[in-house]
Description:
The protein has helices at 3-13, 20-30, 33-40, 44-60, 74-77, 110-125, 138-147, 172-181, 196-209, 223-233, 251-259, 279-287, 289-297, 305-312, 316-328, and strands at 63-66, 85-90, 99-103, 129-132, 155-158, 183-186, 212-215, 237-240, 263-264, 332-335, 338-341. By secondary structure, it is α/β, with parallel strands linked by helices.
Amino acid sequence: xxxxxxxxxxxxxxxxxxxxxxxxxxxxxxxxxxxxxxxxxxxxxxxxxxxxxxxxxxxxxxxxxxxxxxxxxxxxxxxxxxxxxxxxxxxxxxxxxxxxxxxxxxxxxxxxxxxxxxxxxxxxxxxxxxxxxxxxxxxxxxxxxxxxxxxxxxxxxxxxxxxxxxxxxxxxxxxxxxxxxxxxxxxxxxxxxxxxxxxxxxxxxxxxxxxxxxxxxxxxxxxxxxxxxxxxxxxxxxxxxxxxxxxxxxxxxxxxxxxxxxxxxxxxxxxxxxxxxxxxxxxxxxxxxxxxxxxxxxxxxxxxxxxxxxxxxxxxxxxxxxxxxxxxxxxxxxxxxxxxxx
Length: 342
């Protein structure tokens, strides 16, 4: 990184009312960041703020990459507009991996998060970096699923605040795992506390980074649906995971499947040959075969123990013991008439 070059670029970007579009206009008009700075004349407060940011970034081991750098992701560079400068904490090489974006609701079901985790783990095992926003629910499941795969380029968290600003705090341990074995990125200043509008742009960058986007559970008017729309506008390949139509979290993905804007996602076999699915997944499937068959038999309509016994060909006593385990894991719940999948 050329210090003077990044200093001038940040002086422009940290000036009032300058975002990616205005930045591009200024560079095109004046020919270079240095010339643009000479024209807009940032005051001392902006200069001091940028100097402080660069000093803090250096102390925290945070890198800057610009859109004219070979480290800048090609998929993001193709977006118009795109962030002229990204800050990165973690392994820069993660940004050179093929990427898949995975998004969905913060209020995902346990079954939905488990499904997302399996998909993310398989993509990471095949050399993809899984991109998401480090929110609770679906994002967390995607990151953690990717991190179950071996290696150090599995996942990328795109933040709405500064790359050093951990949010939500419940994901602090996840943040440090991603820094250790992936990358955290942001277009915002180091130390910046996000406001609502920043999450909209964060979602656009998530959509742009992935070569394809997978949408999990999502309400029709959710931020995840906006991310999917950004991906559609960017001509990305869209996959949506269907769910029961009585659940509002199914409205988003089901609507995209119905309109033909997304392909239906039934599992990892939609993307990879089944005989290439990771051995870890196979071991887990064998270990939990009885529990998995019970989960497959459950949905939003209650099913009794006797009916479950007939479906999975197990005795009622075996069914009960497996249901206890699944209840403790938060995957099923007992209601009037039997059990439902959470």
